[in-house]
Amino acid sequence: MTQRPTVDLSRFDNSRSFHPGAGVLKRTLWYFVNALIFQNPAFPFRSPKPRLLRLFGARVGRGVVIHPSVNIKFPWRLSIGDHSWIGQRVWLDNLDQLTIGNHVVISQGAMIIQGSHDYKKTDYPTYTRPVILEDGCWVGAGAIVTLGVTMGSHSVLAAGSLASKDLEPYMIHQGNPAVPVRERVIT
Which of 3, 37, 49, 149 to pair with 30, CA 20 to 30 A apart? Predict the structure, then answer.
């Protein structure tokens, strides 16, 4: 009987397949700022967060609201438009460019996942894809947007749903995988 290949995590080497986009010092400083100010539920102040993100290379518009307990992987790969809101316990796992438009809401406990591993390869290499949340989008509480997805303008991803493909503009999408269920009418 022929032995089938297996995953060998001892061969994993992220340096060949992924670069974090910043040096060790910048990543280390961000780790502590993220832990002490962004992820910390005891730090309720919103106003310093956009400025701190800008210091680390993010593009952040006016009127952005970032609640406590938000985890942001790499601010230098983040762009947030004007008047967008990021709710409590949101995870922005932005291993690639994450573009958040104007007037976007990312509700409590939502996740934006931009990296994965090639499960077909023995050494399990990392790969990433950009994510775009166009103007007026709403990512519902506990929803997940995966790598490479574009949420069309004013689309909605319902609470607890999973977007693994692009979402149509002005449509409400629900389920796992998310499918359009009705039009979003704004009055």
Answer: 149
Does residue 163 have a pLDDT over 90? Answer: yes
Angle at 81 between CA 148 and CA 168, to 5 degrees: 45
- Residues 151 and 163 sit within 8 Å (Cβ to Cβ): yes
Q: Class for domain 22-183, per CATH?
A: mainly beta
Measured CA distances, 38 to 30, 45, 65, 105, 147 (Å): 10, 10, 12, 17, 23
pLDDT at 16: 77
99: number of Cβ within 10 Å: 18
Q: Where are the domains of the chain?
A: 22-183
CB atoms within 10 A of CB 22: 17
Region at 140 (left for phi over 0; alpha for psi -120 to 50; beta for the rest): beta
**162 CB-near residues (< 8 Å, 6+ apart):** 143, 144, 146, 175, 176, 177, 178
CA distance 81 to 40: 24
- CB-based contact 128:121 (threshold 8 Å): no
Q: Which 8-state DSSP code applies to residue 2?
A: P
Residues 19-64 have pLDDT tens digits of 999 999 999 999 999 999 999 999 989 999 999 999 999 999 999 9
